[in-house]
Amino acid sequence: MRLIIAKCSVDYVGRLKAHLPLAVRLLLVKADGSVLVHSDGGSYKPLNWMSPPATVRTTTPAETELEEGVQEQWIVQSSKTDDRLIINIHEQLHESHHDLGVDPGLIKDGVEADLQRLLAEQIHTLGDGYTLIRREYFTAIGPVDILARDPHGATVAIELKRRGVIDGVEQLTRYLALLNRDPLLAPVRGVFAAQQIKPQARVLALDRGIECLTLDYDAMRGADDSSTRLF
């Protein structure tokens, strides 16, 4: 991984257009080809990014850009689309390289991991006609718990929690923003699934067009037969 702290401006050019004015930021260039732009605030969410696969090319700025103080220009080109991330570096303050090795991946607690496995096996819990694409669908910002297709063939991203709170909704929101940039998957809608969903998380999810699903863990693993209940 390459870490650079630089005074820079950033432009995203493609299906979407976005501009980050000149400021000091952290640039992460990861071994998988992704490039992420971070500020010192806003929690762990990048201000902008390019998902892998992508290539990074360093170019000499144009004369007008040199006059504006640009010392180096990065062109981060997506390998799947025409989208580009253009980073104009005015001053580089720090650079370091680190080999992180192979990551073993996220190890979830027993209940949450079981919920993911059970829902993948019982994808019909979402409704008739749903099919599983895969579990742990990799993205540049982490794995989506389950990716599925609804009866109409649209992509559905499912985030699973034992206890659903606002942070889980925010996490799914970031995944959806990234997945909807992929023309092979878009449009992608979200489902926030948990054994218990806090009211504030439910309100936020519904406001963002995310469906909420309460899961009965005991019933899914066959430990509770709802047909034998009196009430």
Describe the structure.
With 231 residues, the protein is an alpha+beta fold. It folds into two domains: 2-97, Protein Yojf, Chain: A; 110-220, Trna Endonuclease, Chain: A, domain 1 (3-Layer(aba) Sandwich). It is 19% helix and 41% strand. It contains five helices and twelve strands. It has a seven-stranded antiparallel beta sheet, with no helix packed on it. Strands 8-9-10-11-12 form a five-stranded mixed beta sheet, with helices on both faces. A hairpin with a 4-residue loop joins strand 1 and strand 2. The relative contact order is 0.12.
Provide tags for this entry:
2 domains; Protein Yojf, Chain: A; single chain; Trna Endonuclease, Chain: A, domain 1; 231 residues; seven-stranded antiparallel sheet; five-stranded mixed sheet; alpha+beta
Short recap of the structure:
With 231 residues, the protein is an alpha+beta fold.
- Biggest sheet: strand arrangement: 4-3-2-1-7-6-5
Shape-level CATH architecture of the largest domain = 3-Layer(aba) Sandwich
Beta-strand residue fraction: 35-45%
Oligomer: single chain
The overall average pLDDT, rounded, is 90
Structural Rg = 21 Å
Number of strands: 12
Number of helices: 5
Indicate the percent of residues in helices. Answer: 10-25%
Quickly name the level 1 CATH class of the largest domain: Alpha Beta
Structural class: alpha+beta
CA distance, first residue to last residue: 56 Å
Give the helix/strand layout.
Layout: E1 2-13, E2 18-29, E3 35-38, E4 48-50, E5 54-59, H1 63-67, E6 72-78, E7 84-97, H2 110-121, E8 131-137, E9 144-149, E10 155-164, H3 166-179, E11 188-197, H4 199-207, E12 211-214, H5 217-220
Parallel strand pairs: 10-11, 11-12
Antiparallel strand pairs: 1-2, 1-7, 2-3, 3-4, 5-6, 6-7, 8-9, 9-10
Helix pairs in contact: 3-4
